[in-house]
Amino acid sequence: MDALFLQVLNGLDKGGAYALIALGLTLVFGTLGVVNFAHGALFMFGAFCAVSLERIFSTSYVTISETEKDFLGNPLKVDVPYIQEWFGSGTANFLQDYSVPLSILLAIVVMGFVGVVMERGLIKHFYKRPHADQILVTFGLAIVLAEIVRHYYGANPIPQQAPEIVAGAANVGNWFGLGDNVVYPWWRLVYFVFSLIVIGAVFAFLQFTTFGMVVRAGMQDRETVGLLGINIEKRFTIVFALAAIVAGVAGAMYTPIYPPDYNLGMEFLVLSFVVVVVGGMGSLGGAVLAGFLLGILQSFASMNEVKSILPALDQVIIYLVAVIILLTLPRGLLGRQGVMED
Amino acid sequence: MSNQVKEQAKTEDEDRGFKRGTPNTVLHIDDVHKSFAGLHALSDVDLDVREGETHAIIGPNGAGKSTLLNVCVGRLKPDRGAVVFDGNVLTGKSPHQINQLGVARVFQTPEVFPELTVLENVMVPALSKRDGHFRLNPFSSFSGEKALRDEAKHVLESVGLQAQFDDLASSQSRGDKRRLELAMGLIQHPRLLLLDEPTAGMARHDTNATIDLLKKIKEGGMTKVIIEHDMHVVFSLADRISVLAGGRIIAQGTPEEIKNNPRVKEAYLGEEQV
Amino acid sequence: MSDRNDLTRRRVIKSGAVAAAGAAATPYFFSRAFADGHGYRNAPKGDTVTLGFNVPQTGAYADEGADELRAYELAVEHLNGEGDGGMLNTFSSKALKGNGVLGKKVDFVTGDTQTKSDAARASAKRMIENDGAIMITGGSSSGVAIAVQGLCQEAGVIFMAGLTHSNDTTGKDKRANGFRHFFNTEMTGAALAPVLKNAFGSDRNAYHLTADYTWGWSQEGSIQKYTEELGWNTTAAVRTPLGAGDFSSFITPVLDSGADVLVLNHYGKDMVNSLTQAVQFGLRDKQVNGKDFQIVVPLFSRLMAQGAGESIKGIYGSTNWNWSLKDEGSQAFVKSFGTKYGFPPSQAAHTCYSQVLLYADAAERAGTFMPSELGKSLEGFEFDGLGNGPVLYRAEDHQCFKDVLVVQGAQNPQSKFDLLEVVEVTPRSQVEYAPELLGGELGPYNNG
Amino acid sequence: MTSSWKDWALLIGFSAVILCLPILLEPIGANYPDLLQKIAIFGLFAIGFNILFGLTGYLSFGHAAFIGIGSYMAMWSYKLLTMNVLPAIIFSTAIAGLLAFAIGYVSLRRSGIYFSILTLAFAQMMYNLAYSVLTPLTNGETGLQTRAIRSDPNQSLLDGDIRVIDQAFGVEEIGVPTTNFFGMAMSGYTGFYFCAVILILGFFIAQRITHSNFGMMLKAIKSNQNRLNYTGINTRPYLITAFVISGMYAGLAGGLMTATDPIAGAERMQWTASGEVVLMTILGGVGTLVGPVLGAGLIKYAEQKVSSWNEGIIADFFSFLPDGLRDFMAEISSLFVGEGWHMTLGLMFMIIVIFLPGGLMEGFRRLSVLFRRPKNRETMKSATIPSTKPGESIAPRAAE
């Protein structure tokens, strides 16, 4: 029971991340009709927004220590962060401690900018092109983005700390009257809540704003919206930027769980496509549902009890579920007819 | 209908094991009912198409004409009732099976193969007619199909597309695409040709040319069902007419009978002067 | 980053007639590789000898590969008598004079393994067939090492393995043309188990999380074998998919299993993620069976451990070498590497540097580059001064035997490089095993 | 007929270029057996992939599975039967065909991206299993390799081979034997010419298929599958056949990989490998005959050669420049070559698809149009529909 409960939590947490990535991907699919293989790279870019902010906060000037020596026996160079000098050590420590949540702000700005530039500079010209061309150009872009990050940050994963206040694990068991061993990292709980908030915000935005209504109409029938004479181009740009921002903040907040490296995007690329397709092309709700479903199933499949019966189930569960769902439900969980079927 | 053609058609049919239905009736639509989300698109539709005739189905917008056609070619499955073609129940068969039985369809919005040339567009249905629904022949030479090619050219010439054999279908004007559609149907020598508004969107002189062409085919004895809006076309071509309104057949008869039918006038009131 | 630019500039200065060498290398038929009468493949013509450095330059191990390449370039400098000579000065064998090898200037070509067997073999083949490389070295995973070793055997050149920790490299997959300086899981188990027993007691229940592929299984087996000999109990050994990313579903069952030690048989990114996440789950703050819960990472890599950040503090593991060692050889190497690149070398860099020196020395002592002769002079070779104390290149399996370092994540790091502190140096005698233990057959040398 | 004369000319030209590759590629330093073999093998793979993707438009993201199964089958043939490559490549082609039938039969129930994800899922499952629980068959991470004949019948087949046919013929083995084709060693240039001949054969078959009635049906499926159904064609068996044929090409390519380099690893089946062949095909020109081979060559060249241009080589290259400028140039280029070769690959993808929709073959077509005054209407028109109309277009222009 306790074990199951924890696995559900794990699944929700994973599912949150999957859903956030898939959400932006399906938004771009549905409205712009573009297969964006660079979406994983946007997630990775977001993660490196967090890394960058931490780097900015710890940008230092160097003083030579009188007493200490470095590894070669030369006088040690001591780094003093600029923010410590400017704001005093109290503020500096606070900023450094909260650099990951604060990086959301940076991610929104940077990813919004990246999204607009990408859409205006590149994606725009590919709306009418065959999917094969879209795949090639966005895949090329994904490689270039990854290589740029690698050039500046190297290939190794770079750890990020969650704020001190949520560093440990919460005794979730006590809240629900379960055993003492039911503990769960605070940051993962934060991430789950965060993903719900972002998903909720995106849905609210699409549901309750005129802009959102047009976008949803566009997902239903692109041609009609085009005929309405609304400035569809500008809206497409905004949609793409929105997708980039969602992927970006999802990546930034994920860093304490998963130290990011330049290849992070490629790792999530295939998975996010599977999630989107299982959810059904053109369906936002489907993407979210599939994200959580696959997350939870993956967690269950990893349990020792399950693995003792089906040894490698956790290796293939995602794909197995995808196959079963696509063969029983022709258009995934909530997909509509005619989207990306030819 | 010339006896020679008739005889030929008959032997072909017997070769394929066709069973002859009621004498003279090629297509029998039997009590077909179809509704979409509670909306009755077709109710109790009964219709007989006779051998060799040109049968027009007319009716106001939303009368269910296209639904009826889609039921005939297997795109839609009726909720009730059946479509029988030449002794074969079409209901439940897939589109390619129905075509192989000898029913060809000409689409309203041109459904050509845009990336193929005009000639290839016509040769593909010709191959299907000759080789059946599937033949594994990866080493046959398409360019070596001289007989088929000549026939395709002939058909294309008959619809007036002789100048653009090797042009891509996608580069054709809408009118030329409609003609191409027609050629794709004709080359199969179907026992039954279903034409969905063959002249919709055509300029007047194109329409007349098409009427002339269809008249010429009529002399060849091919059975045709035409769905049409343009009364000029209908009265020029049809032997018999069925009028569909609100998903029901409200009248059936020769052009003369239909012209004078009060219910038809009522159905068309305000839409078009008959 | 500044150190990269720095590096680039330095590498640029060091140029060789590599392109020329490549162009001059005539096409070979693999079966009849030599027409020049030397009797072995790629026998150096002219006054240079070309070595092939095959390291991961893309993918998860790219930084490790870059560090290996730095070490190789340093080694080539020292062999050619440039720089401060590094460990050449402390090496017990004095055959090398700093004037190249056998009077020929050392040159090199590089290739990207991508940490994939296919890519690694392709790039090794390029260096052998196109660039005339006489020896291939490098790599940072066992799968790649074994694949390239097999290729070098077929092609008839010597393979000096880089970072490869699986038993199989010099066990059931050993080849006459292949040599390994790095240690293996068997030695890790033998060295680590007694230290763990001393630190945590003999009454412990271990829970293994193991990367689900050959190296992981090999590691799990060795640790289990040696800890159980000392009285530990293995609660469970769970396989995790390679590159799982999120290990939470594997970590939560640990909480409830009654185990009080978690052994992470992961390397690279898997290690970074599983360790980070295990610590987040509060495992190290727990008390089980009245004892503090402990985490062990049997194979540590300082370079990779940086990715785990704070999480590695106090974690036990083993390593082939660490820059903080105080012996003469290590100091010389750190000094020379640190001066050139501005940061200390990794264990991967150390093993690669050593391998090049060992190869060159063997050639010098054998008086030829011919694999069969050169290999024989490495077999049973005893040496010292390369940072690991006295070392034996065992003839039976071409595996180096040396002291093993048991390390712990530094509690109070003095610098960002100061991640590991050496807890114990397990003597060579304690980690030696019979060559038959791991099976396999060297077979005959192949000269091409 | 004129068109068939053109076909023969293309075939002869193609064969001549492939057979002369060792000479033609010398100026760019690509004239060594391994790269030549890889170009031929991946060219074959891409040609086969193009029969599915280029003709029908169905984008499979799991074709690496067939390369993988082909490699494993061939390895087992070496281990159990004989080091002769002939049975090995027959097995790999046949078994890959069977697997392709099974996967195709299921996956082709869906179209578009749903089909792509189904094929991806099957391949990824095979990859994950081959890497872990199927290790007794695949030797997991290390990869399946040939071994010396085992002396002890209890020894695992992974560690010792039996090679019954070779043993029956009393073939002497010293150490681990290499692959051969009736005594001809399959490494080096012999291996390349063996692959080259099979590539030419594969090209010929692909050409026949493309210009056959069957090929015309596949093109019609790509163009308008729905319409084809209404003209009486059952598209499903056509699609399955195309899938199986392309799967057999992939299996054959997998077999050839082990023939020239006897090892089979699971990573050959990873999605990146499936993606690679997609990229090769698009890069060269989807639906063209020559394009996929060109794309394969370019990507393999980048992987093998561009990655090897380290700082030393760059410095030599720019050695004619003054010191400061040379360092600067070397610095800039090191972003794109050596360890930065991925960057070059990524930029190449982007540039080609942005400026040459339709791939490299489209580029050649445009060049040829530049030189020949565009006099007939057809060239003008075909320029507006990029995806089908390259120089050696698959659409036979029945020129009368």
Describe the protein's topology.
The complex is a heterotetramer of chains A (342), B (274), C (448) and D (400).
Chain B (H helix, E strand, L loop, with lengths): L2 H13 L9 E12 L2 E12 L3 E5 L6 H9 L6 E6 L2 E2 L5 H6 L2 E4 L11 H14 L14 H14 L14 H13 L5 E5 L7 H17 L2 E5 L3 H7 L2 E6 L2 E6 L1 H5 L2 H7 L6
Chain C lengths: L1 H12 L4 H7 L23 E8 L6 H18 L25 E8 L4 H13 L5 E4 L3 H14 L2 E4 L16 E3 L4 H16 L4 E7 L2 H16 L3 E8 L7 H8 L5 E5 L2 H13 L6 E2 L2 E2 L1 E6 L2 H4 L10 E4 L8 H14 L5 H20 L4 H8 L2 E3 L7 E3 L6 E2 L2 E6 L10 E7 L1 H4 L17
Parallel strand pairs in C: 1-2, 1-3, 3-4, 4-5, 6-7, 6-8, 8-11, 11-12
Antiparallel strand pairs in C: 9-10, 12-16, 13-14, 14-15, 16-17
Helix pairs in contact in C: 3-12, 4-5, 6-7, 12-13
Chain D lengths: L1 H18 L1 H4 L8 H24 L7 H17 L4 H23 L4 H20 L3 H4 L5 E2 L18 H5 L11 E2 L2 E2 L2 H23 L2 H18 L4 H26 L2 E2 L6 H14 L6 H14 L6 H7 L5 H12 L6 H15 L3 H13 L5 H6 L18
Folded structure, characterized:
- The complex is a heterotetramer of chains A (about 350), B (about 270), C (about 450) and D (about 400).
- Chain A is mainly α.
- Chain A contains 14 helices and four strands.
- In chain A, helix 1 packs antiparallel against helix 10, helix 11 (about 265-280) packs across helix 12 and helix 12 packs antiparallel against helix 14 (about 315-330).
- Chain A is globular.
- The mean pLDDT of chain A is about 85.
- In chain B, the strands form two sheets. Chain B has a six-stranded mixed beta sheet, sandwiched between helices.
- The longest helix of chain B is centred in the C-terminal third of the chain and has 17 residues, at about 205-220.
- Chain C is an alpha/beta fold.
- Helix content of chain C is about 35%, strand content about 20%.
- Chain C contains 14 helices and 17 strands.
- A seven-stranded mixed beta sheet of chain C has the order 7-6-8-11-12-16-17, sandwiched between helices.
- Chains C and D meet through helix 1, helix 2, helix 3, strand 2 and helix 4 of C and helix 3, helix 9, helix 14 and helix 15 of D.
